[in-house]
Specification:
The chain has 14 helices and 25 strands. The protein has 480 residues and is α+β, with helices and mostly antiparallel strands. The chain binds one RNA strand of 78 nucleotides through residues 1-5, 12, 14-15, 18, 29-34, 86, 89-90, 111, 140, 142, 144-148, 151-152, 156, 158, 205, 213, 224-228, 260-264, 293, 295-297, 301, 326-334, 336, 345, 347-350, 357, 418-420, 445, 480.
Length: 480
RNA sequence: CGGGCUGUGGCGCAGCCUGGCUAGCGCGCUUGCUUGGGGUGCAAGAGGUCCCGGGUUCAAAUCCCGGCAGCCCGACCA
């Protein structure tokens, strides 16, 4: 074995995840900085593709990128009561700078609602200034007690959208529009099916009126909150005195939203598609979609093979693996672990026959195609792979979504579930958005993931905890 | 932040309990030849603050104390 073997998913899911991240050249622990990671070349390249897909959609919906400071005066966070209460335990605070104790400490941003609120107040006077549609690509820091690469690290990369509107209706449209953007990227780019829903009051963002999320299911059946979109109401508008004068001449506080996705998406991607051989990347997200491995023995074969190989690689935009001193077999393993969707093999036999061998990552299937046909064939295979990965993930989600009609039943299903052993399910049950319900499922370490926006089941029913009438089933699961 | 496990060339480990000569092994790495359609073989080499800091001892990878980091569990969370 050239590199460390990958633990089987069935043996230990958590160890498998760690192995895939490491052997896929995605990231490694920063080791000298607690809870932080180094995002390595392959992992960062995937993040860059995600950024591009998201950023294009943000621009298309009228947002502009800006950048705000990393450091936020501590008093800013204290202006919104719920917000400070929610974030206080996980703040990193700068108290000394330039060799001197600061008069007012700074916090390293855990999110930027407050500092952006401050500037919105400065920039917004009239209804003509609205809506204000801003996005920021940034790093943030939350002092987490337990970290996992990509899924939860002390420092992480994300985007945070912040908007201000002249009415609550308009703000709500924005909240749901951006939730749709996230779902679109998750499903159509990442091939990761998600459930759109609203968080319970107990689970919502600190300082928001309402929080919406997309929830995905990992291969071990655990839920992953993959994106959030918040209706901030006028909470921050009031805290930072962001006021505008309406057409009618009335002075009112703005209605704000914020929404974000992070490098956590990369973790979700890994846990959605990868297998015991390593990383599997959906074609639309793969930084390298195809690699061509040339095969030869003697020098004259090499010359012949390389000539055709470099031409084909160039034609179809594949990376040519021309490393010397490594056998083709070693190269196959190398690219397999890194999740490259398609690997092409070209050797003397193919040269003689005018053929080329194509292998797809997710099935491991090999097919022989003509060299003339390969430029046409590769995109077909990639498209099919994208669809099959989504279908497999969707089937897993559907197969592991179950109904329950009593809290005991929910508990029976979810209590034994663990991250490393798996067996997770999305349990659909009628439950009220009430702190008693959140507390009850927490007894067996589960959470109400969301109240789905679309009811795919049987409509209203009685809450299995409080007995009160509710209009649909909620998603209950163990989560990352 | 509490509990458990772990930290030894790049990676995986042995040695630690029961302190003692030059710290081993497999893989990888370098050079050469060979091989090449799923991790080719042979030969010769390079590479180590034994996580860090104290302590005990004639002597510490090994024993003791403290710290740092990682993994798992718990509480908290994108």
């Amino acid at each position: 074995m050239a590199e460390s073997p990958i633990t089987a998913r069935s043996k230990d899911f958590a160890a498998w995840y760690q192995d895939v991240v490491l052997s896929g050249d995605m990231a490694e622990p920063a080791e000298i900085v607690k809870g932080c990671m180094v995002i390595r070349a392959n992992g960062y390249a995937v993040w860059e593709v995600l950024q591009r897909e998201l950023d294009n959609r943000f621009k298309a919906t009228g947002h502009q990128n800006m950048y705000f400071p990393l450091l936020i005066p501590k008093s800013f966070l204290e202006k919104e009561a719920e917000h400070v209460e929610g974030f206080a335990p996980e703040l990193a605070v700068v108290t000394v700078a330039g060799g001197k104790e600061l008069e007012e400490p700074y916090v390293i941003r855990p999110t930027s609602e407050t500092i952006i609120g401050h500037f919105f107040a400065k920039w917004i006077q009239s209804w003509r200034d609205l809506p204000m549609l801003v996005n920021q690509w940034a790093n943030v820091m939350r002092w987490e007690l337990r970290t996992r690469m990509f899924l939860r690290t002390t420092e992480f990369l994300w985007q945070e959208g912040h908007t201000a509107h002249s009415s609550h209706d308009e703000a709500m449209e924005e909240v749901l529009r951006m939730l749709d953007v996230y779902a679109d990227v998750a499903e159509n780019i990442m091939a990761m099916p998600v459930i759109k829903g609203q968080k319970t009051r107990a689970e919502k963002f600190a300082g928001a009126e309402k929080t919406f999320s997309i929830e995905a299911m990992m291969q071990n059946g655990l839920a992953l909150q993959a994106g959030t979109s918040h209706d901030l109401g006028q909470n921050f508008g009031k805290a930072f005195d962001v006021k505008f004068q309406s057409k009618e001449g009335q002075l009112d506080h703005v209605w704000q939203t914020s929404w974000g996705v992070s490098t956590r998406l990369v973790g979700g991607l890994i846990m959605s598609h990868s297998d015991d051989k390593g990383l599997v990347l959906p074609p639309k997200l793969a930084p390298t979609k195809a690699v061509l491995v040339p095969i030869y023995r003697k020098d004259e074969e090499r010359a012949q093979v390389m000539e055709v190989a470099s031409k084909i690689a160039k034609d179809i935009g594949a990376k040519l693996d021309e490393r010397e001193g490594q056998t083709p077999g070693a190269k196959f393993y190398h690219w397999e672990r890194r999740g490259v969707p398609v690997v092409l093999e070209l050797g003397p036999r193919d040269i003689a026959a005018g053929n080329i061998v194509l292998k797809t990552r997710h099935t491991g299937a090999k097919e022989i195609t003509t060299q003339e046909g390969i430029a046409e064939r590769v995109p077909q295979v990639l498209e099919q792979m994208q669809a099959e990965l989504y279908a497999a993930a969707k089937k897993r989600l559907d197969d592991n979504t179950v109904l329950a009609n009593s809290i005991e039943q929910v508990e029976e299903i979810l209590r034994p579930v663990t991250a490393e052993k798996g067996g997770g399910r999305f349990v659909m049950a009628h439950m009220k958005d009430d702190a008693r319900c959140d507390a009850r499922v927490k007894e067996f370490k589960a959470t109400i993931r969301c109240i789905p926006l679309v009811d795919r089941f049987d409509g209203p029913g009685k809450c299995i905890v409080t007995g009160e009438q509710v209009d649909r089933r909620v998603v209950i699961a163990k989560a990352y």
